Description:
The chain is α/β, with parallel strands linked by helices. It folds into 3 domains: 4-208, Thiamin diphosphate (ThDP)-binding fold, Pyr/PP domains (Rossmann fold), CATH 3.40.50.970; 217-375, TPP-binding domain (Rossmann fold, 3-Layer(aba) Sandwich); 385-571, Rossmann fold, CATH 3.40.50. The protein has 23 helices and 23 strands. The strands form 5 sheets. It has a 6-stranded parallel sheet, with helices on both faces. The longest helix has 21 residues, at 361-381. It starts with a strand and ends in a 10-residue tail after the last helix.
Amino acid sequence: MSETITLTTAQAIVRYLANQFIEIDGTEHRLCGGGFGIFGHGNVTCLGEALYDHQEELPLYRGQNEQSMGFAAAAYAKYWLRRRFMFATASAGPGTANLLTAAALAHANRLPMLMLCGDAFLTRLPDPVLQQLEHFGNPALGLNDGFKAVSRYWDRITHPAQVIQSLPAAINTMLDPADCGPAFIALPQDVQGWTYDYPVELFEKRTHHIRRQAPDAYEVAKAIQMIEAAERPILIAGGGVQYSGAVAEFTAFAEKHQIPVVETIAGRANLLDTHPLNIGPIGVTGSDSANAVAEAADLVVAVGTRLQDFTTGSWTAFAKDAKFIGVNVGRHDAMKHLSHPVVGDAKLALEALQTEYKTPEGWTGFAKDERQKWNAYVAENVKAGNRPNSYAQAIGTVNALCDPRDRIVAAAGGLPAEVTANWRTLDIGTVDVEFGFSCMGYEIAGGWGARIAQSEQEPDKDTIVFCGDGSYLLMNSDLYSSVLTQKKMIVFVLDNGGFAVINKLQNNTGNESFNNLFADAPTIPEAFAVDFEAHAASMGCNAETVSNPDELGEAFKRAKAAQKTSVIVMKVDAYEGWTTEGHTWWEVGTPHITDNPKVEAAHKDWEATRDKQRRGV
Length: 617
């Protein structure tokens, strides 16, 4: 008989995690970088006891909110290109419920995160317990079942022996290139403390490797035929290029065949801004240059992208007769819109697509000329001058002063569009614009998680967060977390008086400003300005308010030299200063019947572009 060790369920989970490693570029790392935890009665007595004995191997960061802990874990995994993850533990009831949004963000962005969450007692002897949701006709149904919709792997441990199967399955899911996403494990409070005689070999050190799936020979051969027949091809660089570690292969493929490259939001920073084949970001938050070549292309080779509507302009960004090749490790993504699929790892697929094809010089020259026009527009757009303060000016100022390896974090609101359009990539893999779930509140929490990861690899560089006043007010407490843990960030709070980008959409569809800007909220008799500087200072940050981009630049220099988190506040105009160029059509629901002539006119104008929309073919 094999040797066994008696452990509680919680002790077995923690011991197993502590002994998992991964080899990355020849260096061994612990697979789980640690965790984020807020304890309550549903996880402190058993899981907390187990974690206490493994603080060195699995450092536990105390967050201020479970949702923000999940955001931080997602940003950590994104920095490590999905090769490492953090766990988040929450107590039964509202603590676990707070993780739901973060799980959805990780699921949409295909990011690994392990959730270890308290649950009701399996025996039901004390039912109904504190914070339990009772379903009278289904006593087995509870809050944790809600995570099934936002998890790639879900399990409830009903016996300690399940750990032997469940933990490896969860990790295999999180490390799978095609199925990567969050894993949720419900831990009933009594089962956490139950014991089992586990085989000792379960806890032996294991070093993991990310699988690289080779593409099918037939799919590769047909893709080569399509490329060789193309006259106006483009490459779309998605986030999967970086997750595959295929930036060098992607760049070499583009250079060999002289194919123009456009980037998705998740694929920003696949190519340097100065690369001659980098034609710019594509789509709703893109560039005139990328959208011009996309509209004229006869072949679109989409590498490592799920072709979200902001990339495709709700499928109006491309010619209706353009052909698609989907290079993706996930079959679901590779076959979208009847693309010819090349299902496999991006690095191996690009190496397999061997051909002597060369793009016609006229087409590549056209793309480069379009990019030069866009460069001129951006240079003028980010310039401080005789116009109101804008997001673009703040972005341009920071871009000119930052280190090439500084990490940029933004999410939701107007900043993803402004960063995507105006940021000039200085080094590979340095931009994190969370737009898979477009989740307000990710910015500061995600910046904290990114900084934890960055401090493990590049401690002398900075994590720079662009945040609107709306997102700041929604979730700011991890400024305090960053000060407490000495994980320095530089946070720009660009205050436009509310949810200005949604107000812009409201106005663009013929509607009057209503309930987005504080000044236009009918239940606010008199709006007043928030003192963001004082608020940030109260949480221990260096904080200052500036009046214009020049002052912002000087404040940024001081923040770079500082040893702790700095918050820099600047008001920006809610109406003027938006990046007005580079946008494709985007489908939003507009009223088909209305008494408002402006809304009716906007609806007709919006629908006038629908005839360009591809219908899945």
